[in-house]
């Protein structure tokens, strides 16, 4: 295609550079930091409130906080809010818990028109599946190595 529209590679390269979006890396880093920090602050607030009002110890409050943050990430993805946050914040929206919930719910929402089995269930782990497989496999390998080292 480049040969039909452009006389040489330099003309094509110049055209691509003109059409490519320009990025302000400093501004993007600030947005990522602010949004990621805000999500983490919300998580810490939720944790503190769970400890205080439900009178749970630290570990159980942490587990409950994880549950709440996954729910909020999935809810905001379903409502289309998380995608808007991600467009502005970029990597800042991929805070581990809420970003993981988003990576599971987003493909499921995209394919829901294909039905619950062939759409939602089949596509739910398109993004998160490889992460889960690698995480589980590597933890099993590390566990086996640890077992033999301890013997």
Task: Jot down its keywords.
151 residues; mainly alpha; 0% strand
What does this structure look like?
- The chain is mainly alpha-helical.
- It has one domain (23-150).
- The protein is 79% helix and 0% strand.
- It has 8 helices and no strands.
- It has helices spanning 2-5, 9-19, 25-53, 58-78, 81-89, 96-110, 116-123, 128-150.
- Helix 3 (25-53) packs across helix 4 (58-78) and helix 4 (58-78) runs parallel beside helix 6.
- The radius of gyration is 22 Å and the shape is extended.
List the helices and strands and how they pair.
Layout: H1 2-5, H2 9-19, H3 25-53, H4 58-78, H5 81-89, H6 96-110, H7 116-123, H8 128-150
Helix pairs in contact: 3-4, 4-6, 6-7
Summarize the structure.
This protein is an all-alpha fold and 151 residues long. It contains eight helices and no strands.
What is the molecular shape? extended
Strand percentage? under 5%
Number of helices: 8
Radius of gyration: 22 Å
User: What is the terminal separation in angstroms?
Assistant: 64 Å
Percentage of helical residues? Answer: over 70%
Total number of β-strand segments?
Answer: 0
Strand/helix succession: HHHHHHHH
Rounded mean pLDDT is 85
How many discrete structural domains? Answer: 1
Low-pLDDT runs: none
Organism: Clostridium formicaceticum
Transmembrane segments: 29-47, 59-82, 89-109, 124-149
Protein name: Stage V sporulation protein AC
InterPro entries: Spore_V_AC, SpoVA
């Amino acid at each position: 295609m480049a040969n039909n529209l452009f006389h040489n590679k330099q003309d094509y390269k110049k055209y691509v550079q003109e059409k490519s979006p320009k990025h302000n890396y400093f501004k993007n880093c600030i947005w990522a930091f602010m949004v990621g920090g805000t999500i983490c602050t919300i998580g810490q607030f939720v944790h503190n409130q769970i400890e205080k009002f439900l009178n749970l110890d630290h570990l159980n409050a942490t587990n409950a906080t994880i549950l709440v943050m996954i729910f909020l990430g999935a809810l905001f993805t379903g409502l289309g809010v998380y995608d808007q946050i991600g467009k502005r914040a970029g990597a800042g929206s991929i805070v581990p818990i809420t970003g993981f919930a988003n990576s599971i719910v987003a493909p499921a929402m995209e394919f829901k028109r294909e039905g619950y089995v062939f759409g939602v269930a089949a596509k739910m782990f398109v993004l998160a599946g490889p992460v889960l497989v690698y995480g589980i496999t590597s933890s099993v390998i590390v566990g086996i190595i640890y077992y033999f080292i301890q013997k």
